[in-house]
Design goal:
Belongs to the FlgM family. With about 100 residues, this protein is mostly helical. Helices cover about 50% and strands about 0% of the residues. The chain is built from four helices and no strands. It starts with 13 loop residues before the first helix and ends with a helix. About 0% of the residues are buried.
Length: about 100
């Protein structure tokens, strides 16, 4: 069957229009609910990801190792203005960290 491009589309018969509007592609009536399909997605972790997960579990169960007495003493010293900053020590440690990072590259 051939149609001219500038011609109007062929008319749909009334019986076909009714059938198309009430029945879906599968042949089931359109007014009935459609069941969802079960999801089958899976995730496969690499060895590195599994290692990170294990490390996260270890860190979550291990004690934090934070000296709360020292933390509270530092907070109090900062609050009352008696905490002194040792700039040369901070600079030395920052440079040492930088050297370690450069060596790791």
């Amino acid at each position: 069957m051939t149609h001219r491009i500038d011609a109007p589309p062929p008319a749909v018969r009334a019986a076909e229009a009714t059938a198309l509007s009430s029945v879906g592609r599968s042949g089931a009536p359109r007014n009935e609910p459609v069941a969802a399909t079960a999801a089958v997605d899976r995730v496969i972790l690499t060895g590195d990801a599994e290692g990170l997960q294990a490390m996260g579990r270890e860190l979550g169960t291990a004690p934090a190792g934070i000296d709360m007495a020292r933390v509270n003493a530092l907070k109090a010293a900062i609050a009352d203005g008696s905490y002194a900053i040792d700039a040369p020590t901070i600079a030395t440690r920052m440079l040492g960290l930088e050297r370690q990072l450069e060596g790791a590259r």
